[in-house]
Amino acid sequence: MSDTVERGRWSVVRVSRGLFPALLWTASGLLLGFILLPVLGLVTATSPGGLRAAVADEEIRDAVLLSVQDAAITAVAGTVLGVPLAYLLARRRFPGHALVQAIVDLPLAIPHTVAGIALLFVFGRTGWLGAPLLTTGLSFYGTQAGIIVAMLFVSAPFAVNSARVAFEALDPNVERAARSLGASPGQTFRRVTLPLAWRGVLTGAVLVYARSISEFGAVVILAYYPATAPVAIYNLFLSSGLAESASAAVLLLLVALATFLVLRTLASGWLVAGAARPRR
Question: How far apart are the C-alpha atoms of 269 and 124, rounded to whole Å?
Fold first, then answer.
């Protein structure tokens, strides 16, 4: 047996005692423990002095800031480019629809070192796009632009899929009603569809950011330098050992967690404000 209690805009379900609730709590605890134990091991192995040394290390500090900056740029780019494709996949059925969805999911299925090698053939100095763009002064190999390209390749599916699910959950009749009142397709999307699907779009942007800031495999092949935080930590592990690299890893963990919480909080604030705004 279970009962539901309304608390504001949330519904809290109270589950009675029994075998099924016990299984739920046990499985949940095992997974949470599996995630938390390595993190706790990393944090407890780092002393305050080691963390201060990592913060004072200009190379590590610059690498962390570069990761945060490029991940933010990637999140914006992934959202801007991913939302139109997500809407097409959600609202249109065209020849090759399943193939397009499979292409979107492809970066999730291949090793990221393979992704880096594939990106070299396109964006490297002799690549299909890299070579002609190099004549204009734009280079992706070993540059910040290359870092963003690598991050975008591996994280774009999160932006597309999250927004697509949000669009699919909307009742098409709402859009039809807007069109019947004289709104153009663009106006309907901007004033009706996008505000209603904003939660999924924001979630996708946060996931793109989180995935990008942790990327190593594709970045280290296409743009080894300037070093992002994962690359710098890997280099520190090879050159100085576990203790020094652990301190830098905790610094990245704290920065990533802080920015992730800020993004989540801002997203929740925007959503609440949007829900409270009176409709005209």
Answer: 41
Structure confidence at residue 221 (pLDDT): 97
Neighbours of 69 (CB within 10 A): 15
Q: What percent of the chain has pLDDT over 70?
A: 89
CA distance linking residue 149 with residue 162, whole number of Å: 20
Task: Reduce the DSSP state of residue 35 to 3 states and report it.
Answer: helix
Q: How many angstroms separate the first and last alpha carbons of the chain?
A: 42
At 278, give phi and psi (nearest 5°).
-65, 140
Half-sphere exposure of 207 (CA within 13 A, CB side): 18
CB 243 within 8 A of CB 42: no
Extract the residue ranges of the chain whose pLDDT is less than 70.
1-16, 267-280
Q: What is the pLDDT of residue 24?
A: 94
Nearby residues of 174 by Cβ (< 8 Å), 6 or more positions away: 192, 193, 196
pTM, rounded to two decimals = 0.86
Contacts of 154 (CB under 8 A, 6+ apart): 107, 112, 115, 211, 212, 215, 217, 218
The answer to whether the CB of 248 falls within 8 A of the CB of 54 is yes
pLDDT of residue 35: 93
* Closest of 64, 79, 32 to residue 209, by C-alpha: 79
CB-CB contact of 176 with 258 (8 Å): no
Q: CA-CA distance, 238 to 138, in Å (whole number)?
A: 32
The residue written with tokens 């610059």 in the block is: 62
